[in-house]
Amino acid sequence: MTSSFSSSTCHTSKENLPSLLGALNADVLKEFFHRCADKLCGRKGPVYEKFSSSCAWSESQFTQAVSGVEAFLVDCMVHNYDRKKVEDVIPLHESLINAVMNIIVVRGDELQKYLLSLCQSGPAEALRDYDWKVKMVKGSSSLFSLEQTLLELDLTTEKRTSSLWCKTEEHQTGRIRVELTPDNVSALINTLERALDSL
Amino acid sequence: MDEVDKIIIRSLKEIGCDIDEELDSLRQFSPELVVEAASRCVEAIQPGSGIPTSLPPSMSMRFRIGASIAQACMDMGYTGEVGYQTFLYSNEADLRRVLMFLIEKLPKEGQTEKIVQEPSSRAARLQKDISATILKQLSAPWVPSFCKEDGIRWHDDGSFTVEGGKCFNFASEPLQTGNTSHGCTPQEWREYCVHYLPLVSDQVSAANRLVPSLITLNSRGILSPSQQLSTQKAGELRKLRSDLLQEEYGKFLSADVAQKLSETSVKLGSRFALNERLQFLSEKSPEKKKQPIQEIVPTEAVSETSEERQRRQEEEEEHAVEMLKNENEELKERLEQLQLDIKTLSAKLPQVLEERDLAERTLQEAEVKQAVRKKVLDLLPDADTNVAKLQAVIEASTKKLINLATQWEEHRAPLLQQYRNARQLNSSKASESARQAEALRITREKVAELTEDLRNKEALHSHLQAEYAKVSKDISRSAYTRRIMEIIGNISKQKNEIEKILKDTKELHKEINTLAGRLDRSFTVADEVIFRDAKRDDVSRRAYKLLATLHSECSELVKMVEETGACVRESRDLEDQIETESAKNVGANFERISADLRQMKQETASLAAQLKTKPV
């Protein structure tokens, strides 16, 4: 299912994956897989400069390997691969397979949780973060003393345009900025609390 | 004079002089202390005068300091006699006069300190601070942005304000700190955390996201504390999540595909179109690639002229482009056709599904009917016995039903009772909790009220303390006033006495005058009478002579008495003078002055020696 919907680069890189990964030793492989899992979980991914010394990849091979491993990890999580299936997909030396299995066990929970959250947010715009500032308006050109308190609320939203599973820089971040008076703020909080209760 | 000295010492202590508690009179002041007191007074009256408060060892410097203090006093309008000797070789009375003058000149507290009513509430203080900061920023001159590092602008008084500068958005990223629950053995997890988990500072993509990410992580941890699950439970949870993930993934993909299909533009970004295109390309490309190669090979063999070759090549290329275009058109048409088909088919799909559901339902109904009919037909041949059997069965089932109903009732009654009891208990509990919630609310309100009260009281307390600090000074003031009133009373009493004495003296004078007049008159009369008789009588002549001598002797006597009085007065004056001179303790001062002079001579000599030894 995945392979038919992944983009073509993933498709080809996955075929090359065994030959690319076969050249690594178990420690470097572990490190590489962990960094790819980090990238899937929304953190900083692997950096070519770090791996260029320990592996003989060119930069394009490196990118291929990254996307291939990502697609592989997604498949693992979705279809709950066991050891045999992993061996089928990437036929490697036993020590390397052990390393891969270890990573799947260790990072499984985290990856599952993150992928689920991605699925549930869907293709629509979703709130990712928020920031706030309190402002005090001392006066205006017409009023000497206004003394109005305002809350500036910044909502950072994220919208994934396509290909969620092969994460290339394809999510757009947006920013919604609103200024609220104390009454607005309490109304907003009440609405959110009601929404939370109804869940 | 003790009273005056005490006032002076107190005032000097207030302006910061380090005066020993035991000292209570100006007589006990050392020259160092005198100089310190005077210079502090001058500094308080004229800030920035720059007179040192301690005496240096060098004698000439000491004289200079003394002279400068004296000059400052004269500049301030001191009319009495003042010089370096007043401070260095002090005598009590002069010193007292100078210090009293200086203390009178000291700035009064009431003049410098305006009584400012501190705003009590925090909001008011905040607003005041904001106003002050804005005022400061507005009054400060403009400074280019490159002079303000990170938008921070330093003011002269050491404070700073933020003007502009870079301000990062609060954007967080998910962090892994290694303490969340996990589905593997502790050893594996430990190995991951020790060897492969990067530091949180390396996990974020930009340094300015670290703090927001940590704040978000902490608040998430507070909102939903992670719990350590047993391995079995964790496994179950994992399985559940995996199933859910599969399901969601399927949904997501179908949604994604539907979205792509709805985009009717001929964009080849759609995955279906992309796949198809790839498929067709792979089918056609081998032929396409072979064709030109086959054609190119013979041309080279014939070895035509280069122009012709080029022309032919161009023609071939054009031909190939034409073919590709045609192909492209075809593909496009086919794609559109296919998309249309997909659309019509997907539109039809729900209808067809519905029809199928309907058909299945009717089929099931018909099957049920058919089964009943078949049973009836089976029973029909031996109708009577079967009817009897059926009736028996019916009776048995009725009995069973009744039996069951009674049993049900038996069970139902206690259960119902139990249910009612439980409901009552529940409602009582609910009312109890409502009451407690109400009590809690009341307590909270009370707490808020008390806090407000406490804040008010604290504000009042600080206010009263400030007032108390002011009042404590007033106590000495009232003491002074009382003392002044006493002194005034004493003075008026003394004045009365003096007036009385003056009156007595005047009366005495008058009496003396009258007595002297009478004496003169009686002497003149006596003189005339005796002189008249003296012309004729010898005895009278002798008496006259005796009278004349008596008179001259007596007047001499009176003169002597007057002279004695003058002498006594003079001696008293002299005694006073001696007293004042001795108060100046000239002897000691003279010794000190001569010692200082010797020291100065030594200093001068050493300086001269230095000057000589110094090569020109």
Alpha-carbon distance between the two ends of chain B: 59 Å
Structural class of chain B: mainly alpha
Series of H and E elements of chain A: HHHHHHHEEEH
Oligomer: heterodimer
Q: What is the averaged pLDDT score of chain A?
A: 78
* Principal-axes shape call of chain A: elongated
The rounded Rg of chain A comes to: 23 Å
Q: Residue ranges of chain A: pLDDT <50 for 5 or more in a row? A: 1-11
Strand order of the largest sheet of chain B: 1-2
What features would you describe in this structure?
The complex is a heterodimer of chains A (199) and B (616). Chain A has 199 residues and is α+β, with helices and mostly antiparallel strands. Chain A has 8 helices and 3 strands; from the N terminus they run H-H-H-H-H-H-H-E-E-E-H. Chain A has helices at 2-5, 8-21, 26-40, 48-52, 59-79, 83-89, 94-121, 182-198; strands at 126-137, 148-160, 171-180. In chain A, helix 2 packs across helix 5 and helix 3 runs parallel beside helix 7 (94-121). Chain B starts with a helix and ends with a helix. The model of chain B is unreliable at 112-117 and 264-303 (pLDDT under 50). Chains A and B meet through helix 3, helix 5, helix 7 and strand 1 of A and helix 7, helix 8, helix 11 and helix 12 of B.
Brief overview:
The complex is a heterodimer of chains A (about 200) and B (about 625). Chain A has about 200 residues and is an alpha+beta fold.
Set down the secondary structure blueprint.
The complex is a heterodimer of chains A (199) and B (616).
Chain A: H1 2-5, H2 8-21, H3 26-40, H4 48-52, H5 59-79, H6 83-89, H7 94-121, E1 126-137, E2 148-160, E3 171-180, H8 182-198
Antiparallel strand pairs in A: 1-2, 2-3
Helix pairs in contact in A: 2-5, 3-5, 3-7, 5-7
Chain B: H1 2-14, H2 31-45, H3 59-75, H4 84-88, H5 92-105, H6 109-112, H7 122-139, E1 152-154, E2 160-162, H8 186-196, H9 200-203, H10 210-223, H11 231-262, H12 271-302, H13 306-379, H14 383-534, H15 538-583, H16 586-613
Helix pairs in contact in B: 1-5, 2-3, 2-5, 12-13, 14-15
